[in-house]
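Duplicate of #3305? Posting structure anyway:
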């Protein structure tokens, strides 16, 4: 990939509106490579598929990271999806979906110092920390009702994130305390989304 765009180090979103945005951008190159594996079963009461991806994504900007190549934020080494469905009888079926992916990369400071009472964050190599992996299990059961004159209906009972995994959404640095009194303590905190969510759905399909 060529002519990729990134903001220069130290660029602030609150910069002067009179400044040309182009002056805050820098251009570079990147690569994305890897392989994918996929197998699917479609016949019989038990069906489903398995997909796996192993990949790398890197960037190189002369004006960033001292010109050294670094992994992109969206670099995810492993990505796995498993889907399985079993038909108990003509009307009742159950299914399970499991997904796993390596965590996204983020750029966290390696140290903090103070200048005129204000904290200054010092960063190392770009995207120097990988967040915890994302994974979850979804379960569902579908019951098809008897066909009627105007159409076909069914009930679906499902559980999203069945084992209540706290998957990371983003991480931020929270500075607590006063450096003058000596009790200042920076802490990395992780924000998560979507815990276990049960749901019931009624579907109707007109003829």
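Output from current build:
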């Amino acid at each position: 990939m060529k002519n990729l765009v990134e903001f220069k180090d130290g660029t602030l979103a609150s910069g002067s509106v009179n400044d040309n945005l182009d002056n805050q951008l820098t251009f570079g190159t990147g690569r994305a490579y890897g392989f994918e594996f996929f197998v699917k079963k479609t016949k019989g009461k038990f069906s489903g598929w398995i997909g796996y991806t192993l990949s790398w994504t890197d960037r190189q900007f002369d004006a960033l990271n001292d010109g050294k190549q670094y992994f992109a934020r969206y670099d995810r080494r492993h990505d796995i999806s498993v889907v399985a469905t079993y038909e108990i009888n003509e009307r009742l079926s159950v299914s399970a979906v499991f997904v796993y992916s390596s965590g996204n990369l983020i750029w966290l400071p390696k140290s903090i110092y103070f200048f005129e009472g204000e904290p200054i964050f010092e960063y190392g190599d770009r995207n120097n920390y990988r967040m915890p992996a994302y994974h979850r299990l979804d379960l569902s059961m579908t019951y098809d009702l008897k066909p009627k004159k105007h159409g076909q209906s069914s009930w679906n009972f499902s559980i999203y994130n069945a084992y209540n995994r706290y998957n990371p959404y983003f991480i931020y640095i929270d500075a607590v305390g006063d450096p003058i009194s000596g009790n200042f303590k920076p802490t990395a905190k992780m924000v998560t989304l979507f815990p276990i969510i049960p749901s019931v759905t009624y579907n109707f399909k007109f003829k």
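Confirmed duplicate; merging threads. Residues 34-206 form one domain. The chain has no helices and 15 strands.
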